[in-house]
Amino acid sequence: MTDHAHDLARVQEATERLLSAAAALDNAALAEPSRLPGWTRGHVLAHIARNADALVNVLEGRPMYVSAETRDADIERDAPRPLETHLTDVRDSAARFDAAGSAPGDWDRVVELRNGITDVAARLPFRRWVEIELHHVDLGAGYELEDLPAEFTERETEFLAQRFLGHPDVPPTLLSDGTRTWSTGQEADDPEITVTGTPADLLGWLAGRREGTSLEVKGGELPALPPL
Predict the structure, then answer these.
(1) What value does the CA radius of gyration of the chain take, rounded to a whole number of Å?
(2) Range 150-218 classified under CATH 3.30.70.3270
(3) Which parts of the sequence belong to the MDMPI C-terminal domain (predicted)?
(4) CA–CA distances in Å: residue 21 to residues 30, 71, 224
């Protein structure tokens, strides 16, 4: 069972780590490319702030975004802002999300996210945690997949393995970090392919942050994963 209060606390911790790292940058660094194609570091920070407000919308029963075009336009609008404006926006939007997530409510209710994706409300703090941790890595400011909290890495690996479970374009695959295992891809009694690697390398591949060249693959080639 998802403990949304526990995840809200993890979100706060991750946000503080992100803000500390961002505060060490300057305006010139914000205009430099991030690790996400076509996005500067300013784009990443703008997205993090706007995502918090979007999840508040979901918690309060509104559409996550007015439209995909509006989402993209808001990020483009906010990306060039000065560092202090970004920091204030990330901090204030995080406080709005925490307030909405701390309010009493039916945490078992089903909510709708982007592109028709649904989930239970209790999972939203974890989804927010994912946004902060992975986009902190995307900033390219010294925070790597190896620096992610172990709890986060394990849970996000399980989440992504489940996301691809049953996908017709992914062969039956067993994932292992040497200690734990997860099944993904087409369901079968026996997996066709076994993929083994460090927790960071497995997560990086599943999350589209690494190509998987450091992974050990048996039974075939490393599967090509569909976009997230």
Answers:
(1) 18
(2) no
(3) 147-226
(4) 12, 25, 33
